[in-house]
Structures are given as C-alpha cells and as structure tokens.
Amino acid sequence: MAVNYGSKRIVVGAHYGLRDWLSQRVTAALMALFTLLVLAQLLLPGALGYDRWAGIFAQQWMKVLSFVAIVSLAWHAWVGVRDVLMDYVKAMGMRLLLQVASIVWLVGCAGWAVQVLWRL
C-alpha cells in the first residue's frame, strides 16, 4: 500500500545525505591525489617551461588521471552549489533557473578543460 506524504520532502531517516557527503569526500580525495602527483612531477630537476608541462600531460595515464580530476572537480562543485541553492534559495523557479545555469556552466568548463588537456 502506497502512502502519500504530500509534496514535502522527508528529511529524516537513515542515510539521508550520505551519498552527497561521501561523493564530496571521494572527489576531494581524488583531486588531492592529482595535486600531489602534479607537484611531485614538478619537483623533479629540470627547467620549468612549456616543454616540461607538455611532457607531464602527454603521458596517457596522466591524461586519464587529469580527466578524472576534471570530472571530480565538476561533480564536487555541483554538489556544493546544489546544496547551497537548496538551503538558501526558497523560490522554486529561481532555484531551478540557478541550478540549470550552474549545470550548463560546469559542463562547459569541464568540456573546455578536457579540450585543453587533449590539445597538449
């Protein structure tokens, strides 16, 4: 038997928000790992110029890790922005508009970053 609780969202119960909390932690850990790997490669001896940067990101494993970091950054930002909008923007239409604008902006930035990455 289905129970209709109305249009209000139920905010109590086990695991409410666990998925968002966990995705924030996992994406932050992936971005930290990426940052440490880039810093480790920059600390190697040699002149720091375009050739070195291009060499770092020319390796296939680094491109894959960079892609994962870009997707992680976009997902991390989306969860944070969505939560802020859900907490502070009460007008449903304005919240939807801002959420759609945020998604378009984040997808555009991620696409641009991937395009820059694969040009190297």
Question: What topology emerges from the helices and strands here?
Answer:
Layout: H1 18-42, H2 50-58, H3 60-88, H4 92-119
How would you sum up this structure, described in words?
The chain is 76% helix and 0% strand. The protein has four helices and no strands. It has one domain (19-119): Up-down Bundle (3 helical TM bundles of succinate and fumarate reductases), CATH 1.20.1300. 5% of the residues are buried. Helix 1 (18-42) runs antiparallel to helix 3 and helix 3 packs antiparallel against helix 4. It is mainly alpha-helical. The chain has helices at residues 18-42, 50-58, 60-88, 92-119.
The name CATH uses for the topology is 3 helical TM bundles of succinate and fumarate reductases
- Number of domains as seen in the coordinates: 1
Query: Overall mean pLDDT score?
Result: 88
The geometry reads as elongated
- Would you list the SSEs in sequence order as H and E? HHHH
What low-confidence regions span 5 or more consecutive residues with pLDDT below 50?
none
Quaternary class: single chain
CATH superfamily: Fumarate reductase/succinate dehydrogenase, transmembrane subunit
Write down the CATH class: Mainly Alpha
Tell me the CATH architecture. Up-down Bundle
- Give the distance, in angstroms, between the N- and C-terminal Cα atoms: 58 Å
Question: Care to count the β-strands?
Answer: 0
Q: Largest sheet, described in full?
A: none
